[in-house]
Design a protein that fits this description.
209 residues, 2 domains, globular, UDP N-Acetylglucosamine Acyltransferase, domain 1
């Protein structure tokens, strides 16, 4: 088995970005698996089949990355396919990662991301283009940090939390699990689990189901 061959789970807009990041990181991208699209989003990488067909069409234990932006759906897909694949951690070569940072299995780090000393990133997270994760931050599994967002030092995020594009979280704040911080917001105090918080400063606007 070629240790650099990889399949991408999800062939939407996020999926094609992840495929290009994986190729830049030195993986041989074999193609996409997706339940909804009828053709590949990138001509050079074929659509290989539905996700249900993955065990039959891909080698047992092939490397895979789940390229779905929705955090809950990404968690579901990881659980669904974990018995037949190994998960790759994909880091674009332009990202700057401290040697003391930890990046979890299945996480994707996009171009021009910075992850500084002592930061811990969980499994199957998305660190999107040009976001910044400063020293000693802790990010749970299945988080998504959107493009241009800034997490200052010592920030803690629970599992499944989504930080919107261009948002800023000041040092030491804690944001609970499965919460959403709106694009452009500034978080200056702790945010509980399962809420949407927006604005400058960010305030809870509603609870999520």
């Amino acid at each position: 088995m070629n240790e650099k061959q990889l399949v991408v789970i999800g062939a939407g807009g996020h999926g094609k970005v992840v495929a290009e990041v994986a190729a830049a990181a030195g993986y041989e991208v074999l193609g996409f698996f997706d339940d909804f699209v009828k053709s590949s989003p990138l001509q050079k990488y074929p659509l290989l089949g539905t996700i249900a067909e993955l065990p039959r069409k891909a080698d047992q234990g092939v490397l895979a990355v789940v390229a779905v932006g929705d955090n809950r759906r990404r968690r579901e897909l990881v659980a669904e396919i974990s018995g037949c694949v190994r998960f790759a951690t994909v880091i674009h070569p332009s990202a700057v990662i401290s040697e003391t940072a930890q990046i979890g299995e299945g996480t994707v780090v996009m171009p021009h991301v910075a992850v500084n000393a002592g930061a811990q990133i969980g499994r199957h997270a998305i660190l999107n283009t040009s976001c910044s994760v400063d020293h000693d931050c802790f990010l749970g599994d299945f988080v998504h940090i959107s493009p241009g967002a800034v997490l200052c030092g010592g920030v803690r995020l629970g599992a499944g939390t989504h930080i919107g594009a261009g948002a800023v979280v000041i040092p030491g704040c804690q944001i609970g699990s499965w919460s959403v911080v709106g694009a452009g917001s500034t978080v200056v105090s702790d945010i509980p689990d399962g809420v949407v918080a927006v604005g400058v400063p960010a305030r809870v606007s509603r609870r999520l189901e």
